[in-house]
Structures are given as C-alpha cells and as structure tokens.
Amino acid sequence: MGIIKKTVHFSTVQVLLPRRMTSMTETWLCLRSVFISQYFCHMIDCQTHRLVSYTNITQGAKEHEEEESAAASRRKTPKSPNMGTLMGVYLPCLQNIFGVILFLRLTWIVGMAGIMQSLLIVLMCCSCTMLTAISMSAIATNGVVPAGGAYFMISRSLGPEFGGAVGLCFYLGTTFASAMYILGAIEIFLKYLVPQAAIFHATDTLGSDSAMLNNMRVYGSICLSLMAVVVFVGVKYVNKLASLFLACVIISIVSIYVGAFKSMTHPPEFTICMLGNRTLVRDRFDVCAKTVMKGNTTVPSQLWEMFCLPGNMSSPQCDDYFIQNNVTEIQGIPGLGSGIIRENMWSDYQQKGEISEKAGLQSVDARGATENFGMYVSADIATSFTLLVGIFFPSATGIMAGSNRSGDLRDAQKSIPVGTILAITTTSFVYFSSVVLFGSCIEGVVLRDKFGDAVQKNLVVGTLSWPSPWVIVIGSFFSTVGAGLQSLTGAPRLLQAIAKDNIIPFLRVFGHGKNNGEPTWALLLTGLIAELGILIASLDMVAPILSMFFLMCYLFVNLACAVQTLLRTPSWRPRFKYYHWALSFLGMSMCLALMFISSWYYAIVAMVIAGMIYKYIEYQGAEKEWGDGIRGLSLSAARYALLRLEVGPPHTKNWRPQLLVLLKLDEDLHVKYPRLLTFASQLKAGKGLTIVGSVVRGNFLDSYGEMQAAEQAIKNMMEIERVKGFCQIVVASKVREGIVHLIQSCGLGGMKHNTVMMGWPYGWRQSEDPRAWKTFINTVRCTTAAHLALMVPKNVSFYPSNHERFTDGNIDVWWIVHDGGMLMLLPFLLKLHKVWRKCKMRIFTVAQMDDNSIQMKKDLAMFLYQLRIETAAFHVVNLTCSTLTQLFYDTVLVTHSMLRASLYSQWPLQAQLVKDRHSLVLVEAPPEKVHMTWTREKCEAEKRNRTKTRFSPRSRLLVDSRDQSNVRRMHTAVKLNEVIVNRSHDARLVLLNMPGPPRDTDGDENYMEFLEVLTEGLERVLLVRGGGREVITIYS
C-alpha cells in the first residue's frame, strides 16, 4: 500500500479536540482518529464519483493508468460546444437529407420512372433509413456515445475489425458526399445562376458536355478550398451558417408547395416549343414558329434558319423532319387540376441520346439531319429503375449527420434518436408529397428534361415555385453548400475517432489536431479525397458510389443491433425501447438488396474494399477488448459447435491430429526445446486444435505467480513460432502427475486432443536421476491407455525452422505395423507446409523371406493410389522370420492383411495386437487394433493357427517371457537399424513405428536402450504410435 498524503488543517483539529485533553498521547490518538475518518470519507467520495459513470470504474492497474491518462488529457482539452437535439442532430440531418437530389434530380426521376415507381423508390430508400435509424437509436442509447458516432457504435458492437472497415467506408462515403454536394452547388451556379461565369466553352454542340465538366472541376476545386477554410476556422461558425442555410431550404420547400397549390387556379406561364412530338431547346431561338410577320411580309424565323439553308422559302433546303411536322406550343406547367397526373403515372425510360417526345402529339416519322440533333432535348445517360435507385438514395443518407458530431452533443443518448427519427419522418413526408405534386403539375417532357433546356434554362423545380423560380435557385444553392459544409465537418471527426483508437497504424497521425481538438490533419486528408470526387465532375456518377458506402454502413448498424438483441448480453440495456431484432434484420436485408439493385459491380467493389480493410486490421492484430457482439456471437457459435461434437466421435474422413504438445521448461521458465513448437506448427499449418501444455512443480497456492509467468513465456514462444492454439499450465507436486492431469483434462467436450507430442529424454543414460526417462515411459503408457496417438520427435534440435526450405530430399516412412494410417497421413500433412513441400515421400515396408514381395509391392502401390497420396518410390525389405518375431520388443502380432483386404472387400479387415507377453492379457480381448504389412497368404496361415489353438487351455494366457535374453532383442534392433540407416541415411526425416513399453516396469531401461539402438545414426526421427483407430480411408 502506497503512502497516503492527506492534509489535515489545524483549525479543524482544534474544533474536534476536547478541551480537557492535555496529554500528548490523547492528542495523538485524536489526530489519528480524525485522519482515519477523513481518509475513509475521501475514499467513499471517490468511489461514489466513480460509480456515477460506469466507464470510470477501473478494472485493474493497467486500466487505472489508462483512466488517469485519459482524465489528464480531458483536463487539458478545452470543452467542445454543447449542442442540443435541434441544432446538433435535427438541423444537420435535414440539411444533408434535403441536399442536392431534391432540387436537381427528383423531378427528372419522376419524369423517367413515373409517379408509381418513384413512390416505390422513395419508399424503399426511406424505409431502409428509418429501420437503420431505429437500430442506431437502440445502440446510441446503450451507453455513452463519444466522438465518432456511427464508427463508435459499430466498432463497440461488432469489434475493431468490423468497426474499422465499416468506419473507413462510411468516412469515404461522407467525404465523397461533400464532393457531390459541391458539384451540385457548382451545377446550379453555372447553369442557372451565372452561366456567363463559364471558363471553358464548347466549339460545337457535341463538345458542350466536356466543357461543362471542365468548368465544374475548376469551380468545384475553388469551392472545396473555401469550405475547408470555413471548417478549419471552427465548427461553431459552421453551426452559425447552418441556420441561414436551413432557412433557405425551408423557404424553398414552402415555395414549391405554395406554387403547386396556386397552379390549380393560376398555373405559371412556361410554354414549351414542340416540333412534331419532339421537344426543342428553347434558348436557341426567340419565337416558336417557322415564320414570323415583319410588317406585311412573312419571313423565316430563327427556328427556320436553324433547320434550313439560306435561300428561297418557296423551294427550301431544310431538314426532312422539320418540313413534314408542325411547330406547336404546349403548357409546361398545366397545374394541379389539369389531369396531367394520368400521363405521368407510368415510367418512360430512355436510352442515351434518345430525343424527348410527348405521346399524343401528331408527328410524321422522318429522318432528320445529324447536325440538327443539338436542337432537341435528349437524354444524356441511359436510365433504368436500378440507376434511379442509386442516384436517389444519397438524398436519404443524411441520417448520420447528427451521430457523426456526437462528441459535440450535450446528451447524445437523447438527441440522436429523437432528432434522427424526426428528421427522417419530416423528409419522407416531403419526398412523398413532392413526387405526387411534381407528377400532378408538370408536363412529362419537362420532367424528363434534366437541365431545363425546354423551359429556357430554368431549374425545372423552380418553374413550379412561387413567387419566382429564383427562390428555388438561390435556396437550393445555399442548401447544397450547407450540406457540403456539414459533410466536411463530420468526415474529419470520424477519421479522427478511428485514428485515436489506434486500430489502423498508418492513420495514427490523423488523430492529432489543433489545441482545441479540431482535426486539422484529418481535414487535410478529407479535402484531398473530396478533390478526387470533384475531378469526376459528374453528379450522376458520384451518387451511386456514395450509395454503396452508406448502404454498407447502414447494413452493419442493423447487424450490430440484431446481434446484440439476439445474444441478450447483460450489457445490452438501451433506453430506446422501440426496436426489435426482426426490424434490424429487415433493414439489413433491404440494405443488401438496395446495394445490388443500384449497381452490382459497385456493390462488389465496396465489399472488396471493406474486406481488405477488415483483413488488414485483423493482420495487424487490433487487440481491443470492447465487449463487442462478434465475440459474444463467437462464444455462442462455439458452444453450439461443441454440443454438436458431443454426438459422437469424428468420422475417419474428418480425422486430423489434434495435438497436445508437452513442453519442458528450464529453471528460468523458458521453453527448453522450442523446435517442438516449430514442428507442431509445420504439421498443423494453423488447422485443427493445438494445446501446448507444461507442468510447474510445487503447490498451487505458492506457485500461482510462477504458473502465470510460465504461461506467458509459452504464449510468447507460440507467437514467435506462429502456433495458433491454447496454452495449459498445471501445477503439481510431481511432473508425472501433472502430465497425467494434462492428458486427462485438456480440451472441452468433443474438442479434445487425440494425439500427444513430447520430446525425447536426452542424456537419460548419464542422468543419475531416473525420473526423467521414467516419466517418459509413464507418459507412453498413459497415452496408450487413453487410446491416444503419440509422436516423439527425436533429435528435435536438428529439425528445420519455419524460415528454412528443403529444396530436395526425401521423407522416408518405415511402415512395419499398420497403425491406422498415421504413418501415411503425417507426411502428407507435413508436405502441405512450405518447409517440406518439395520433399518426396518414400515408403518402406517389411516382408518375410517366403512372402511374395512383388505382389506385395503391387498391392501397396494400388493402396496408396486409392488413398490419393503421391509417393516417389515403394520398397519392400525382406527380413528373416526371427527378426520379425522379435521386431517390436517381443510383441505377438496377430493381424489380417490390410492391403489385400482393402482392395478385395468392402470393409478393411482389422487385426488385433496382443501386447507384451509379460502383460498376461487374454487373446480374445486385446486392447489395440493394428495391421501388419503381410501378404494375404500369410494372413490365412495365421488364422488357421489361431483356429487350432483357440480352445487350447494353455492358449488362454500368454506365456511369461521374463527369462528371454535381452541380447537377442538388441540384436534384432541392431539388424533393423542397419537396414534403416543403409536405406535412409540421407533422408530429411524418417518416420518409424514406435513399439509399446512392457507392462513390467523392470524392463523399462531395456526398452529405452532398444529405442536408442533402433534410431541410432539417424539425424531426424519421428517415432509414431497409433491410437487404435483408422485415421485414413480410401473412400470419398
């Protein structure tokens, strides 16, 4: 406990001290009591203060230090503006939603899609955003939402990988949204406000589009720079300008409603000039007629001169379509009571370059001259329902404008739900009513005229407004500028929040800013990215890109709410109660559907970008524990999978080595043989279960700290060797007991180890303490009793590291006893790793002198062919009968022929292994099942011998062979070792069957000598002992 510094004022002590106290002892006791009472009061006050906000409760030393540093940084940072629901959420959402699309594209969408399909488009988009707002409200009211808004909600709900990926996509969408709003403002400025300000001019009618794009690039860059300066000065100035901009938006919308209802009795005078049924560009001529009267003389009009060559009117050289069709004028705004709604009810999609025509007008179909194409109003792009969905959706994407500035809100939990839902309700009503009013008041050819060429370059929605079209033009201009400012304000804050979480290292610099917390560097990057959108210079091309990024963000907001609701985590307690997981899933489905409806290729690109960001964050290892729902979902999925695994053992086709690696630690708790982990990683290649276990000697109460240090050391080594698995440390008084505990208790449910890997006890001959090799043999016995496979890499320090590559060489398999296919499966798994990939596999099997070696080799080749295992060569080694009899430490092998049985029968015949003769096990109930690589004839002979001796009383028990000479056993090992060394001395790895230990512990030392002699002279040996079951099959 640290020193507690507490100041006690003398005046306070004088008041508290009784007047009769005069002795020093009494004075000291009183001072002590006062000090203790004030200290506990101070501690209670501190704890009460911490309990006010759950985010301030510290969970440990590390969290306490982080909390203190965070508190210090908060004390240094000045207070941000505290805004309420109206100024902080409702108005920014209105400005973003009522942006560029309402004034520049909604009339065109109604003209192309018709009223019915336009209502469907608005319904789809607004329903999607409303469902997302409901999910967002539930997440926002489930705790404090600091700066970052949507990113904070997604990352804390779905984890840093999803949060970073979706957060960056949303940041890119918000940044490109600012570019779209700026492009809309420049389009209004150059086409309707000051057309004379254009810098580039078209030399012909076909070059007008390219000139307009260049003008928008220049003016868009200038406007972006000015807006960035305004945002850099401070968010409070943006908020002050927001009121002015929103007032312009409201006035513009009101003027539309007033003009629409006024058109019922007094429609505005906007006539359209029609040639036949084709719509003419009205600003190219003065009078809508072929001829005009000057005095008493009929002279050609400007329209005539556009279509005809100069000359005599009696024999003119004119465009065929112009000569054969009449010029008429129709009302562009018939009014609310004209019945034009019937004509505008259904869609009229056009291809690029198709001339806008009015159905019902008489027209003679004649081919006109190509040079006169610029006189007609035509479609600049091909239109379809899916395209219009992608263009319209950005008009509904301003719902995150308030949550992006959550750090500036006084009460984000209250303001975000109320302000966002009210804003969506308001804008949805305006969109639905505007679609109906536009279709009921405006002529169809005017609606399909995107830039107002038929109404003398007026903004189409402005022709309906009252008292003047200039109200809409000016109002829409300020509306788009305001929406652009809001986007430029929110996007840098979003990037700053991502950078401060430090989940993407290269974005760390963007977490810094000015002294008042303004994200300066993030604003600079936002401006550069927005400039890319400006250079595209086409609002219709930028809008679908925004739709993808926003829809992806909304999809994951709905997913986050649904996951948290279904998991029912204890921390999921939102104050907003009007949500349901079904609504979240519906919103998620609508987002996904709208992504592919709008543009399937843009949707794929957006998903690829999000996936790359996700994998990058996962690769960098964003170790953030935020209590996210994905972790809870993983726990639920793991529980479900473990319960499913309890149904039964895995099928042979699904069998893979699930390793329990037993490590030995030195006195400093360092891993003694790290190459065991290296070999395990090469064998597993990140697949399946790997448990790394070790034993710490001592008492659990006294050795807990040592156990923690050992666990951390092993985890560090696992990370270095890239072993993906779990670490299990056991404290036991004896190492042998600890290993037994590990073998019994590691794993969970059906996810348990089936193979044990441990090191060889080096120097056991020179060791005075026999416990090391006794523990080794005891572990072999325990794995056999538990029916687990065993692998013992010998000379493991010579095994290759993960950075080495074998460019040639062989992996030799000495297949003496069929142990379920372990010897066949392990080389195949090793060759999947880059270290062993170029090594070739050779198989050696043994036969007696009287066996048919040629037939045996053919059977082996056929068996390996059916196993789909590629091998370089097969070799059959002939040994004497006495050598085979003493092969595995005097073990009696009673087998069927695995090879021939698998080729000629449906089910492989399984053989039985009777262990050491010292064990006195009944022949009829052997504990293991193995196969010997003998021929079919030898197998039949063995069966006949068993039949003869089955009912013999003496065959009930195995013969005690304690008096047999160990010299003969060592001689057998030497002979077999000579054969192996002669054939495999240059092999990269030798796999060999490992014989079982004797039941009688008196022969343990002889067993160790037997293994030493058997593997002497081999650089790398892997001793393998099967677990008593088939691990490989020829069937699919």
Automatic annotation (TrEMBL):
It is found in: Cell membrane. Gene3D superfamilies: Amino acid/polyamine transporter I. Belongs to the SLC12A transporter family. K/Cl co-transporter subfamily. It is a multi-pass membrane protein. Pfam families: AA_permease, SLC12. The chain crosses the membrane at residues 89-108, 120-145, 165-190, 218-235, 241-260, 381-401, 421-447, 521-539, 545-566, 578-595. It comes from Gasterosteus aculeatus aculeatus. Keywords: Cell membrane, Chloride, Glycoprotein, Ion transport, Membrane, Phosphoprotein, Potassium, Potassium transport, Symport, Transmembrane, Transmembrane helix, Transport. It catalyses: K(+)(in) + chloride(in) = K(+)(out) + chloride(out). This is Solute carrier family 12 member 4. The keyword Cell membrane applies.
